[in-house]
Amino acid sequence: MNPLQIGVTGGIGSGKSVVGRVFMALGIPVYEADARAKWLTNHDPILRAGIVNLLGQEAYTADLSETEPGVYHTAWVASRVFADPALLAQLNVLIHPCVMADTETWVQTHRQSPYVIKEAALMRAAGDHNSLDKVIVVTAPLDLRIARIRQRDPHRSEADIRNIIARQITDDERLTMADIVLRNDENELLLPQIVRLHEQFVAEAAII
C-alpha cells in the first residue's frame, strides 16, 4: 500500500519550501518537484533529446567536454517559452510526464513512511489527474512575500518580483484547490501548524 500523498504549494515567497524543510525535519520524505524537474532536464537522455528537438541546441549551454555535457539553459528557455504559450505547452508535455513517472518511482521507495510530501509551485486539486490525497496551500500577504524574496535575492527589483508573481496563478485560484491552508504571515506561528498536521496525517495513515 502506498503512503498518504500530501501536496504542498504556494506562490513565490509564500514559504512553501520552508514548510517542506520542516516536514523533512520531522522525518517525512519530501519530493521537491521543481528541483527534480530541473535535474531531469539535465540527466534524462530522452527528455534532453526531446527538449533539443523542440527548442534547438541553445536550450543547453555549450558542452564542456565529452564527459560533461552542457546544462539546461533555464534563462534562455524561459525567454523563449514565456512569450509563446503554445511553445510552453509543448515543453510541459515533454517535462510533466517525465516528472510524474519519476514521482511514482520515488513514492515506491518510501512506502514504509506513513505519508509523503510533494512540493511544487504548480499543482492541481487532490484527485484531479494526480495521486494526491490532500493539498496544502501556503499563503502570505503580498508585501511580505516581496520582502522575503528581496532579502534572499537582493539583485531582484520589486518590479521584477511583481512580474514573476503576476505570471503565477493567484492565491484565490490556489485556495480553490486547498484542503488545508497554512498561513505563513508572521502573526500565527508556522511550526505549531505543521506539527499539528504531522500528527493528523500520521493518525490518518494508521487507520487506512
Strand order of the largest sheet: 2-3-1-4-5
Beta-strand percentage range: 5-15%
Number of strands: 5
Structural class: alpha/beta
Low-confidence stretches: none
How many helical stretches?
A: 9
Mean pLDDT: 91
| H-E order | EHEHHHHEEHHHEH
- Give the end-to-end Cα distance, rounded to a whole number of Å: 9 Å
Calculate Rg over CA atoms: 18 Å
Coarse morphology: globular
Explain what you see.
This protein is 52% helix and 12% strand. The protein has 208 residues and is α/β, with parallel strands linked by helices. 25% of the residues are buried. The protein has nine helices and five strands, in the order E-H-E-H-H-H-H-E-E-H-H-H-E-H. A five-stranded parallel beta sheet has the order 2-3-1-4-5, with helices on both faces. The longest helix has 25 residues, at 85-109. Helix 2 (33-43) packs across helix 3 (45-55), helix 2 crosses helix 5 and helix 3 (45-55) runs antiparallel to helix 5. It has helices spanning 16-25, 33-43, 45-55, 74-81, 85-109, 142-152, 158-167, 171-175, 190-206; strands spanning 4-10, 30-32, 115-119, 134-139, 180-183. The radius of gyration is 18 Å and the shape is globular.
